[in-house]
Amino acid sequence: MFILRKYRWPSIVLLLSWILVSVGPVLALEDPDSISLESVKVFQNLWETGDQLYVIEYKIMYATDPDEEPEDTFFVGLLDSSSILQATKQVPYYDHYFLAIYLDSAASLVWESTCTVMVAGSPSYFSELEADVTKASMALNPALNWISGVEDDSRDYLGDWCVSLAGTLETSWDTPLLTDADKLNTEGASIFKDEIPGLDSICVGIFQTSLQQMEVDDVPFDDTYQTTLESNMGTRLASTMTNLGEAIGVSQGTVGAICVVILFFIIAGRMFVATGHSGTAVALSIPFILIGVLLNLITVQWLFVAGLLIVILFGVYFILARLA
Fold first, then answer.
1. What are phi and psi of 220, to 5 degrees?
2. Residues 119/38, Cβ–Cβ less than 8 Å
């Protein structure tokens, strides 16, 4: 009685599961008119060293496509040299189509080994799988199916194969997938990017329109002049700025910039009172910014920022005012 209580619920669940599996009917689906693997290409070293991408072209032909979803009725499997199933993927469509299986370096199979790829009906819909009726297979040949290469070469090979495959599907479907320049058009790009996620990041050149990161040379900053200005501040002023910065939680450079900005506005205000003209007041106050740079209170970079702001203000005040 104790044992029955301890294992009662797990036992009931397992028993019910076994009964449902045992007596559950296999869903019926008509055999396809034909089923075949048209091509298989295996590429390596695409996103990381040692990874593998299996691009598998298949045909599951029906005069009229079944109402059942293809993802539920057929799958593609990858078997290793010991005929052990290593990876599967549901087919996305009936008819003439393709899919890709990606294996990272940790899951990759032995390169150029005697692997087998098969497309087959799901046991849930087909009680028996018969060769060339409800399943088809292809033993991979090192000379035909395995495409060896380092990263750049493998990406070029994959791009070329995608364009070639798009041409085959274009003829089969009677639907344009390529441009006149043999680039994937909008529809072709959508299909191939769906089946091979990340394709547009490694095979940029096969797309009609693409985004490519601009390569910019990293020019080292020459701070020789800035270094020569550091001694102009003097020990006492530098110590004062450092202590003030530590007190308010900012760097010495920030304290110096704040002081120069405050001094600039004070002087500009006094100049405006004396001249009655804001533009003149700003112009006469600019030398004090240069003094701040020479004393190393602000860096040369901030001088350029201040100069840019002054140019903008000049444009707004003088040029636009006269155009109005």
1. -65, 140
2. no
Mean pLDDT of the chain: 83
Amino acid at 128: E
pLDDT, tens digit (0-9, with 9 covering 90-100), for 111-144: 999 999 999 999 999 989 999 999 999 999 999 9
231 and 201 Cβ atoms separated by less than 8 Å: no
Annotation: CATH topology of 26-148: Immunoglobulin-like (2.60.40)
Nearest to 113 by CA among 87, 138, 140: 140
Q: Where does the chain hold its CATH 2.60.40.10 domain(s)?
A: 26-148
Is residue 51 within 8 Å of residue 102, measured between CB atoms? Answer: yes
Q: Which residues pair with 131 in a beta bridge?
A: 135
Residue 192: CB atoms within 10 A of its CB come to: 24
What does the pLDDT read at residue 211?
Answer: 56
The answer to whether the CB of 199 falls within 8 A of the CB of 193 is yes
**What tens digit of pLDDT does each residue of 35-61 get?**
999 999 999 999 999 999 999 999 999
If one counts every other C-beta atom within 10 angstroms of the C-beta of residue 304, the result is: 10
Q: Is the pLDDT of residue 182 over 90?
A: yes
3-state helix, strand, coil in the chain (%, to 5): 50, 20, 35
pTM of the model: 0.60
Residue reference for tokens 């052990």: 84
- Report the DSSP beta bridge partners of residue 88: 77
